[in-house]
Amino acid sequence: MSTSKITHPRGLYSLFFTEMWERFSYYGMRALLVLYLTTEYAQGGFGLERASALEIYGIFTGLVYLTPIVGGMLADKLLGQRKAIYTGGVLMAMGQFSLAASHVFMNDETQRTFLFYLGLGLLMMGNGFFKPNISTIVGTLYSDNDPRKDSAFTIFYMGINLGAFLAPIICGTLGEQVGWSYGFGAAGIGMLLACIWFYFEENKLEGQGMPPGRIGEKRLKGKDFINVLAYIIGSIVFVYGFLILQDSISENLMSTLIKIVAALGVLALGYIIYKGTNGNEEWSRVSAIFIFSIANIFFWSGFEQAGGTFNLFAADETNRMIGETEVAASLFQSINALAIFIFAPLLASFWVALATRNRNPSTPAKFGWGLTFLALGFVVMSLASFAAEGEALVSPMWLVGVYVIHTFGELCLSPIGLSMITKLAPPKIVSVMMGLWFASMALANYMAGIMESLLEGIFPGMNLFVFLTITAGTGALMMFALTPVLKKLMKGIH
Q: What ranges do the domains of the chain cover?
């Protein structure tokens, strides 16, 4: 094997650490959010019921993955990926500090609630600018059929999960055992570090991610950062205005307005995809992306129980004592990230080794295996929930086992999905299609938050984890059955 096949551009590692700090910020907040909402008011939380907290979690994490559609469009047409990353990074840092302030001002309920939702709004907006565009730059460092591409996204995924591993340990422990404001504040500092690192490493990106029409430049210019500032201010005004509007009109009218905006957004997205896709080959590949997106919903609606029902299971039904010390419930969310950090390099090398022997599994087959591991994890989680019936606390090894099994599913599906979008998407709308990919994750995250309540309404008494075993297993069988069809639709892209 030649050296050129196993080395990667320096820019990959610049993006690796940028994403690491951004994910430290996001997963630090995610580890705390449901616990912050359900903790009694006297202990600094909001004291919400389980169902209400999970619904807020579902709506927030859903919208976090929906805003990348707009961020992708703006990057493709106006900003370029680099300016979008700076805009998103600053907004997310401000969002984390606003969540921290919501605890500082806990004695003023009106001010506290406003700061809390302001923080969530800024995080949603910031993620929309940041998330699709850093993934897009990774893809542009490689040609479509470069065998290193899947390996590169798996390495990039290690950066995500290094941040996700450190976040619950630092932010989670600070938030639960020192003070909620310290946990969210640490997440905000992590986001600032991501922006600072990206600034100093920008010249290693081989000219990728610049604003449209600008070729051969290594760095953004001063006027670009004035443009970034304008988008930051505009985003803050939008979120602030939305919160003021929400307080001044009825819930029914707000619901109607949101539905109208959502419908217009879907129409605009469809129009942009229609205009940016040309010829039978591009349309065939776009059709494949839509099918993969449906499989993505099956996967993440189960996997994202980690921040909701798994988090509450750790807090309420798991024995977390080590001697005389109680481990923070949020700490369990580091297991998945640690397992990915251990196994991702092995899998990255495995994909490249198989590719050199022409035995690399197709993308549809990898998706099938991802859903299979998800189903197996829920078999274990179902058994854990049965063991937890009554007042006895169960061994933490149940959750450890589930997180590790789900890790293998994630490695088969998630980094491969990011790579697949950059391969299959029409060149003019790569960031928009990346936004569409995250939109499927938005729906999955929302479903993850409301699934427990939804299931209780449809099938009263049915165990959530048994239900998810069935849905994940069904999704796996569908992907294996559709593999020949999807390979044809992909038109030679592997």
A: 3-248+279-489
Sign of torsion, CA 169 174 180 184? Answer: negative
First to last CA, the chain: 20
Q: Are 384 and 394 in contact (CB under 8 A)?
A: yes
Structure tokens at 363: 């993308």
Task: With CA atoms as reference, report the closest residue to 311 among 340, 335, 344, 341.
Answer: 335
Asked if 472 and 406 count as a contact pair (C-beta separation under 8 A), the reply is no
Residue 326 pairs with which residues in a beta bridge? 321
Mean pLDDT throughout 227-231?
Answer: 95
pLDDT band of 4, cuts 50, 70, 90: very low
Cβ–Cβ under 8 Å, residues 98 and 118: yes
Give the angle 260-262-263 at the CA atoms, nearest 5°: 65
φ/ψ (deg, to 5) at 321: -90, 130
What pTM did the predictor assign? Answer: 0.82
Q: Locate 403 and state its tokens.
A: 């997180």
C-alpha distances in Å from residue 355, one per residue of 9, 126, 145, 414: 19, 37, 11, 19
Least confident of 67-71, 296-300, 325-329, 452-456: 67-71
Q: How confident is the model at residue 439 (pLDDT cuts 50, 70, 90)?
A: confident
What is the token pair recorded at 273?
Answer: 């995809």
- Which fold does the domain 3-248+279-489 belong to in CATH? Growth Hormone; Chain: A; (1.20.1250)
Could you give the CA distance from residue 482 to residue 206 in angstroms, rounded to a whole number? 38
| DSSP string across 252-318 | HHHHHHHHHHHHHHHHHHHHHHHHH--HHHHHHHHHHHHHHHHHHHHHHHHHGGGGTHHHHHHHHHB
Rg of the chain over all Cα atoms, to the nearest angstrom: 22
Supply the DSSP symbol for 493.
-
- Rounded Cα–Cα distance for residues 99 and 126 (Å): 14
User: 321 forms bridges with which residues in the sheet?
Assistant: 326
Q: Give the residue among 413, 445, 419, 397 at the shortest CA–CA distance from 143.
A: 419
Contact 130, 89 (CB under 8 A): yes
Residue 112 buriedness (CB in 10 A; 0-12 / 13-18 / 19+): middle
Report the alpha-carbon distance of residue 390 to residue 387 in Å, rounded. 8
CA distance 291 to 282: 15
pLDDT for the residue numbered 180:
94
